[in-house]
Amino acid sequence: MPIVSVDIPEQLARFVGAGVRSGRFSRTSEAVVESLRDLEEREREDQAKLDWLTQAAQDSIDQIEAGHFDTLTSREEIDAYTAQIWAETAREIEEEDRGKAVA
């Protein structure tokens, strides 16, 4: 494994040192490797979320461009539409939960 030298703030050095002394890490390098793996995983998760959001936005744009949208002109219409969406979502979750209970 290549040797890399890094400067870290004193607070992090104390944190790593405490982790080594407590036995959480066998060596300082183990703490650094674990941290980098966590960072790598977080970046993968962030990218997956960004990809999902990008696709969801594009799907919405496509639906609007195809004329598939509702125009709401009052607070009452918005409240009714929101209540309908919540009710549909609750039903879908219930059905999904029932399916998991059967499986």
* Largest sheet geometry: none
Unreliable stretches covering 5 or more consecutive residues: none
Q: How many angstroms separate the termini?
A: 46 Å
Count of helical regions: 3
User: What is the number of independent domains?
Assistant: 2
Mean pLDDT: 95
Q: Structural class of the secondary structure composition?
A: mainly alpha
Instruction: Classify the beta-strand content into a percent band.
Output: under 5%
Count of DSSP E strands? Answer: 0
Task: Please characterize this protein's 3D structure.
This protein has 103 residues and is mainly α. It has two domains: 9-69, no CATH class; 72-103. Helices cover 77% and strands 0% of the residues. It has three helices and no strands. The chain is elongated, with a radius of gyration of 25 Å.
